[in-house]
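Consider this:
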Amino acid sequence: MNFRLFIIFIFLSIFISSFSCSNKSNRSRKPAVRITVESIHKKIIYGDDISISIAIKLKDGELKETKIFVDSVLVTTSKDTEFTSVLKKFENIGKHTVKAEAVKTDGVEGVYFKTFEVLSDLVPEKFGYELIHSYPHNETSFTEGLEIHNGFLYESTGENGKSVLYKNNLKTGKTVQSVKLADRYFGEGITIFNNRIYQLTYKTQIGFVYEPENMAVIDSFHFESTEGWGMTHDDENLIMSDGTNILTYINPTTFKGVKKLQVYDDKNPVMYLNELEYSDGYIYANVWTTNLIVKIDPKTGKVLSKIDLDGILTMSNSDKQVDVLNGIAIDPVTKNMFVTGKLYSKIFEIKLVKKG
């Protein structure tokens, strides 16, 4: 009896296996797509014509059509198994995604992706600085945001349990008013827009809104970025950094994201953008852990110039331990630039000087 059961089991196994293989062989296979993205340069540069070449391999059946999308926007449709689409004078800096959707006549679809990166076509100008004046700065302030408004210096400081929003006399460094944040919040960048102070926090995705005159908290808001770093504004929107090379524009009423700006120079994305300032149509940003400030074109994301502040820390005349350069404030009246850093003993008023 056992032997007969064994024989039956073997026959059933062979039958099931052959049935499965038969089904597998008859199953329609999705088309395979190879995507090639290139320009006349080794690396794609702003303004290049970009060629997107498609090659489709079919295991069975016939191709109905292939749709090509760039950043979710349909750019072309073709019924050919090999074709090329050209994006003329592509003027969007940063990382982009090509999606190919190849569909066979039986409805079976193959979806494939490829990313490409566009660099700036400009080599950033190089600037140094000339010291105009220095002012006292609280050496215990872990500076995260700096702003000049109506003759006062507003400063946001960080670290949990120590984060404070200050309203200071610029010339004396003395505090006029201050608001301490709850211990769970790590204060970050600030900006003053439409007579409101907007302040980010580090990892809680929460921001606060204050009245500049009495420093009263009047609102709070949620932002989508995982981390809050620096903040500024243009004529319409708040602009924030999150430690990457991407700046996010935020509606100041709804606090919803409006758009993102990828920041690049002629070689790479410029990472670790931190404290921000907007002046005369340009964005200035500290690059975290460096003594660099970059000047950014907000229309394209191109880095127009790099400002090297090496040596400025030695002017603080302090033997106490300090952290990194962080803090840019441009006086809206005089247009003079003021810079400082975390735990610096001075705020420096500087004039930019072009190198070479």
Observations:
- Confidence is low (pLDDT under 50) at residues 18-24.
- The chain is about 5% helix and 50% strand.
